[in-house]
Amino acid sequence: MSDTDVVAELYSAIEQSARLLDVPCAPDTVRPVLHAYRETLPEAVIAFRVGTGTRYQGDIDWRFTVPRDVDPYAVARAHGLTDRPDHPIADLLTDVRQRCPVDSFGVDFGVVGGFKKIYVFFPADDMQSLSRLAAVPSMPRGLADKLDFFTRHGLADHKVNVFGIDYRHRSVNVYFGALPEQCRQPATIRAMVGELGLPQPSEQMVRLGERAFGIYTSLGWESSRIDRYCFAVMTPDAATLPVPIEPRIERFLSSMPHGGTDTRFVYYAAVSAADDEHYKLQSYYHWQPRMLDQMLVSESGRQRD
User: Fold this and answer.
1) d(Cα 130, Cα 143) in Å, to the nearest integer?
2) φ, ψ for residue 290, nearest 5 deg
3) Measured between alpha carbons, how far is 292 from 18 in angstroms, rounded to an integer?
4) Burial state string for 131-165 with b = 16 or more CB within 10 A and e = fewer than 16
5) Where in 102-225 does DSSP place strands (E)?
6) What is the 3-state secondary structure (H, E, C) of 212-275?
7) Within 13 Å, how many C-alpha atoms sit on residue 141's CB side?
8) Considering only CA atoms, which of 55, 80, 51 is closest in space to residue 266?
9) CA-to-CA distance for 99 and 103, rounded, in angstroms?
10) Which of 215, 195, 185, 187 is nearest to 152 (CA)?
11) Domain ranges for the chain
């Protein structure tokens, strides 16, 4: 299938996803993103994500992978999807690329909000330590300041498999895969969240944390505080999750078509300083089995039947 055909098919799916959630889909917002990365889309892993909480109301996010030989931030700027702010975030992707091996990238955009994030996927056989990332010059200082916290919980030199740069909110996400078993224990979950000064997680979130294949934290440049702590659980069937799914999202998932026969869902349970507890469900429109190794799901945290 040509990149033109893929863009047309994907836009149709995006338009349908927006209609199912009563979200406006503006061609002037969506089409420029697809056009900018059109040559990479035929081989891309493609997913969409819906969420609860005020941060995720009124929009639906789509994301796709980009090969490592493409600079996704340069593409976004060249096509007018984002500008270059007078802020360290403008240099962060370049600094990470110069110091860390990269397997591929990801681009995240909202049907309403447009271009939002870039993800850096590190090679499955060469994940990065937190200390190495903390030493990147343009990295938020809070990452280095929290090394003691991550060390106490066995994560400072653990595998960071994905790193996200949120240009919209000027923050970063650090994703840990192949979690130590201790990080999935209820007592540890509550202790870690408590140490960060975040609201205590509900029993529902703790149950998901026990099944997690990864966690991620979010922080910015304004302070050393960790703003969000999130668990990720993968399942081939969202109905098998140990928590109920919001009816609106359940109806959406049952109506939204997928581009292949191998369906996957990632359920995110997050607690944050801004809006307490919220949940996000990511479904893959176009899945590639290679993502299991990239996400380190093969090593820990597979959804149990």
Assistant:
1) 8
2) -60, -20
3) 28
4) eebbebeebbebbbebeeebeebebbebbbbbbbb
5) 104-110, 114-121, 160-166, 171-177, 214-220
6) CCEEEEEEECCCCCEEEEEEEEEECCHHHCCCCCCHHHHHHHHHCCCCCCCCCEEEEEEEECCC
7) 4
8) 51
9) 13
10) 195
11) 3-294
**pTM of the predicted model over 0.85:** yes
d(CA 76, CA 253): 29
Distances (CA, A) of 263 to 135, 235, 304: 38, 9, 16
pLDDT tens, residue by residue, 40-72: 999 999 999 988 766 677 899 999 999 999 999
Mean pLDDT by 10 residues, the chain (305 residues): 84 93 93 96 91 78 96 98 96 97 96 96 91 95 94 82 96 91 93 93 90 93 94 82 77 73 77 82 77 51 41
Per residue in 5-14, pLDDT (tens digit) is 889 999 999 9
